[in-house]
Amino acid sequence: MGSPLRLTLPGTSAASAAWDEVVAEFAASDLAMSRFRDDSEAIRLARSAGTGHAVSVGRRLERAVIAADRARRVTEGRFEPRILWDLERLGEHGAAIGTRSVAGDAHATADEVASERRWAGRPITRRTSPGQLEVDHPIDLGGIGKGLALRWAAARIATLGITDFLLDAGGDIVLRGAAPDGPWRVAIEDPRGGDEPLAVLEPGAGAVATSSIRRRHWSTIDGRPVHHLIDPATGEPSDRGLLAVTLAAPDPAWAEVWSKALFLTGRDEIGPEARRRGMAAWWVTVEGKLEMTPAARGRSVWVRGES
User: Fold this and answer.
1) 169-207 burial by CB neighbour count: b if 16+ within 10 A, else e?
2) Three-state DSSP class for residue 169
3) First to last CA, the chain
4) Residue 204 predicted with pLDDT over 80
5) What is the DSSP letter of 189?
6) pLDDT at position 217, please?
């Protein structure tokens, strides 16, 4: 799913079996949800968008689309997977979808893109029957797909009787139990680059996810710098004063959802909302300043620049 995988197990004889479970789950999840594979179920569903025909899908993709629609409702539309054409228009190309749209046109004007966003506020899919999905607009499951793969992989590890492990998928992490020498610790990287972290956390059992512009950024055909964190209201990369948001939460899929939703909230509103919801959230402003909620402060064991 576009991420390096790392599994840390403190002194267990079941390490090989656990790794096999992780690799198998991520391979199956990638085949179900990737937008970069021509043979994925998600691309087959995207190619059917707007045709009025339902597509047979496997259990993973069905669960992922239903979860994404719930996340859209809970976040009041800030989390929105119907941004695939926006990513294509901006230059991050995946497998060919085979349809055209104003939103997929690199030369479309802002007004043309906005006028096509008629899906705003509507459900992502019509689930005509179990295992059958119909969509009007192509979707990119992105972060929630990786979060679900982490959730499912962790559950498979647990079936082996393993209670202590850390599973890392490109910086999004599931933690269970403890490390050999105490609580698991996780570093927050500096989205501006460099090797020294901004902070070190003891998040406890659960998950940590980060939405950041550090890796997935590029230039459009006219040289404009853009990134993958798209504001669904505009179809453009979010430009609200943030470089990264990290969230500690019980579940990796919801940590993914809320790290992106908070990123889209922007610098001025992220603190009040995250505090109101009792979230452990850390965020980095465009000036490079690290800020956090009280719940996050309680889980931070080291912060750069603080004694």
Assistant:
1) bebbbbbbebeeeebbebebbbbeeeeebbbebbbeebb
2) strand
3) 39
4) yes
5) P
6) 87
